[in-house]
Amino acid sequence: MNGALLSVEGADGCGKSTHIGFIAQWLRKRGAAVLCTREPGGTAVGESLRQILLHAAATPIADRCELLLMFAARAQHLDEVIVPALAAGKWVLCDRFIDATYAYQGGGRGIAAQDIEILEQWTHRAVQPDLTVLLDAPVEVAAARTRQRGGKPDRFEGQQADFKQAVRRVYQARAARFPQRIRVLDAKQPMAQVRAELNTVLATFWQQRQRAHEH
Ligand code: TMP
Description:
The chain is built from eight helices and five strands, in the order E-H-E-H-H-E-H-H-E-H-H-E-H. It is globular. Strands 2-3-1-4-5 form a five-stranded parallel beta sheet, with helices on both faces. It has a single domain (about 5-215), classed as P-loop containing nucleotide triphosphate hydrolases (Rossmann fold), CATH 3.40.50. The protein has helices spanning about 15-30, 45-55, 65-85, 100-110, 115-125, 140-150, 160-175, 190-215; strands at about 5-10, 35-40, 90-95, 130-135, 180-185. It is of the alpha/beta class. Thymidine-5'-phosphate (TMP) binds next to helix 4.
């Protein structure tokens, strides 16, 4: 069976990392070769850009610069890691991908979706996630979890509630627009419940891929 590109999305503090670990394990148990990666990042260049994007404090980063850096990191990630891995039949599990750009740079920063689309077409060529898991939680719930975790908030975690509301709204709007690809899980439920729903989502997707492979 061919591999696939899976992305996991959600607000900071929605439990993304834990669920990604579970997905990787789920896939490996079924014999899939899984490559876990993240955005921005996933390559040496991308991780340097991540450092700037999340932690640069000396000078404000212009919104358009932030958008271009996200796509710069993604271009490198696609060419160096994602496209070769998919070509080798691997399952690529990506902690955030294109939907984060629409949510954060589009919703949060207010950049027009049409402008993001132009860069998306140019950068991605045809590569899109086959399945996206969106962990959705009210802004207060996600923010409280981030606070609990402690540490210094990064450039995105430190944003005001209206930025975070806009991020959530765009994620939800994209899930409504791409219902086949984006599966929404209510992340404020207890972990066991989220995991049970995630299990169903994965099993359904796995079966679809198997059927497609057989035909
Ligand atoms: P995370 O790896 O802890 O989720 O942090 C990555 C941050 O980068 C997160 O706050 C969302 C943000 N981000 C964007 O703003 N745009 C993007 O395109 C991506 C991939 C991430």
